[in-house]
């Protein structure tokens, strides 16, 4: 793939598509993975996405009628060393994409690397164990990441009945003194009742700005 290239997925259901999207775009000419027509291309079954490189854009993917075979639906890395940076996930949907066993753990979006963005997406109906969206500021190459999560709709998440049902988590207890510098801004949270922590902040230098929480049973929790 060259700078400015677009990969366009045709209409229809893509079954068990284990996508790995990588390349070296530029700020002015990113590489884009998108769909032929919004709303008519779906990722189903055991479909997942891993992305790594620079200046990548993922636009318009819809994950429905399935679940992640492992522990991630969308991951901003492949392996432990290849991460996505300066990249965007936008206009995407993950809707009731759940493992049948509520105790089986997965997380829908995993942000690694630096300077990545999640915008204008919908995530709703998560019923099984695991955080909906996680920022991982875990050490060199991931801390001081300056990710931005904004203008997203976090739909209903029913009570899980245990710890591990956060909608957003920024960091972990082990890396709680690392700076993340993540911005969570202008998102809408509706009926996000997975557990008492809706947004769990377990790292430093983050900003939670102008978000709306509508009929949510929980809090924005500043840990450590």
SSE layout and pairing:
Layout: E1 6-9, E2 12-15, E3 18-24, E4 31-35, E5 41-45, E6 48-54, E7 56-59, E8 62-66, E9 72-75, E10 77-78, E11 82-85, E12 88-90, E13 93-95, E14 107-111, E15 117-119, E16 122-124, E17 133-135, E18 148-150, E19 153-154, E20 168-171, E21 183-185, E22 188-190, E23 197-202, E24 207-209, E25 212-214, E26 219-222
Parallel strand pairs: 1-4, 2-5, 3-6, 4-7, 5-8, 6-9, 6-11, 7-12, 8-13, 9-14, 12-15, 13-16, 14-17, 15-18, 16-19, 17-20, 18-21, 19-22, 20-23, 21-24, 22-25, 23-26
Antiparallel strand pairs: 10-11
Summarize the structure.
With 224 residues, this protein is mostly beta strands.
What does this protein structure show overall?
With 224 residues, this protein is mainly beta. 0% of the residues lie in helices and 46% in strands. The protein contains no helices and 26 strands.
Class by alpha and beta content: mainly beta
H/E series: EEEEEEEEEEEEEEEEEEEEEEEEEE
Strand proportion, as a percent range, falls in: over 45%
Strands, count: 26
**Fraction of helical residues:** under 10%
User: Which residues form runs of ≥5 with pLDDT under 50?
Assistant: none
Distance between the termini: 43 Å
Mean pLDDT: 96
Please report the number of helical segments: 0
Q: What Rg do the Cα atoms give?
A: 16 Å
């Amino acid at each position: 793939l060259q700078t400015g290239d677009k990969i366009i997925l045709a209409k229809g259901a893509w079954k068990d598509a284990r996508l790995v999207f990588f390349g070296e775009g530029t700020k002015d000419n990113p590489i884009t993975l998108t769909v032929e027509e919004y709303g008519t291309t779906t990722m189903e079954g055991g479909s997942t996405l891993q992305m790594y490189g620079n200046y990548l854009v993922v636009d318009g993917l819809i994950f429905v009628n399935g679940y992640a075979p492992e522990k991630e639906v969308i991951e901003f890395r492949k392996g432990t060393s290849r991460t996505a940076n300066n990249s965007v996930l936008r206009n995407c949907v993950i809707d009731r994409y759940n493992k049948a066993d509520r105790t089986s753990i997965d997380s829908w979006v995993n942000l690694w690397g630096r300077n990545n963005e999640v915008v204008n997406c919908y995530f709703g109906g998560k019923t099984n164990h695991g955080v909906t969206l996680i920022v991982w500021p875990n050490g060199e190459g991931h801390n001081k990441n300056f990710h931005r999560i904004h203008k997203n709709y976090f739909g209903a998440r029913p009570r899980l009945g245990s710890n591990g049902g956060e909608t957003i988590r920024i960091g972990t207890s082990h890396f709680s003194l690392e700076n993340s510098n993540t911005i969570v801004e202008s998102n809408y949270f509706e009926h996000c009742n997975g557990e008492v922590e809706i947004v769990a902040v377990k790292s430093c230098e983050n900003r939670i700005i102008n978000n709306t929480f509508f009929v949510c049973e929980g809090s924005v929790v500043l840990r450590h």
